[in-house]
Specification:
Blueprint (H helix, E strand, L loop, with lengths): L33 H9 L2 E3 L12 H13 L4 E7 L6 H21 L7 E7 L10 H7 L1 E7 L1
Parallel strand pairs: 2-3
Antiparallel strand pairs: 1-4, 2-4
C-alpha cells in the first residue's frame, strides 16, 4: 500500500493500476469493486456462534466477494480450515469444524466458485487462534479460516 500523504509533483506515482492487482493467492482482484477488494484482502476468517455451523448473515458480503474472486480466477484455490473452541470432546470438535468448513464451502459454491477450487479440513480445537478459557477466547476460536494457496 502506498504511503499516506503526497509530495513531489510526479503524478505517475498516484495513478491507479486497473489490471493485475494481486489479491489472496496471487489472484487478480481488478475485476472486483473497491469494496469487494477490501473484503477479500482484509477478511479471511468467518466466526461462528457456540455449537453452531450455520454462517452468520454478517459474513454474507465477505463470502460473496470471495466467491466472486474465485469465479473470476479459476486457477486460484482456497483451503477452508474449520476450528472449534476447547469445549466438547476432541471427536465432536473435529466434526463441528468440518461442518463449519462445509457451510462456508457451500456458500462459496453458490457464489460462483468451482468445487475444484475448494478443499476443507477440520482442526477441531487443536489450533486455537488464542489461548484462554473465557468467552472472548472461545469466540475467536470458533472459526473457519480461508487460506489461499499459491
Amino acid at each position: 500500500m502506498p504511503p499516506a500523504g503526497g509530495g513531489g509533483s510526479d503524478d505517475s506515482s498516484s495513478s491507479v493500476i486497473t489490471t493485475g492487482l494481486p489479491g489472496p493467492g496471487g489472484a487478480d482482484i481488478s475485476e472486483l469493486s473497491p469494496q469487494e477488494q477490501t473484503l477479500v484482502t482484509e477478511n479471511l476468517v468467518v466466526y461462528f456462534e457456540f455449537d453452531r455451523s450455520d454462517v452468520r448473515s454478517d459474513f454474507n458480503a465477505m463470502l460473496a466477494a470471495h466467491g466472486r474472486l474465485l469465479a473470476t480466477n479459476p486457477g486460484v484455490a482456497v483451503r477452508l480450515e474449520g476450528h472449534a473452541d476447547e469445549r466438547g470432546t476432541r471427536e465432536y470438535n473435529i466434526g463441528l469444524g468440518e461442518r463449519r468448513s462445509q457451510s462456508v464451502r457451500q456458500i462459496l459454491l453458490l457464489q460462483g466458485a468451482a468445487a475444484s477450487q475448494l478443499s476443507t479440513i477440520s482442526y477441531g480445537e487443536e489450533r486455537p487462534a488464542v489461548f484462554g478459557s473465557d468467552e472472548g477466547s472461545w469466540s475467536l476460536n470458533r472459526r473457519v479460516e480461508l487460506v489461499y494457496e499459491q
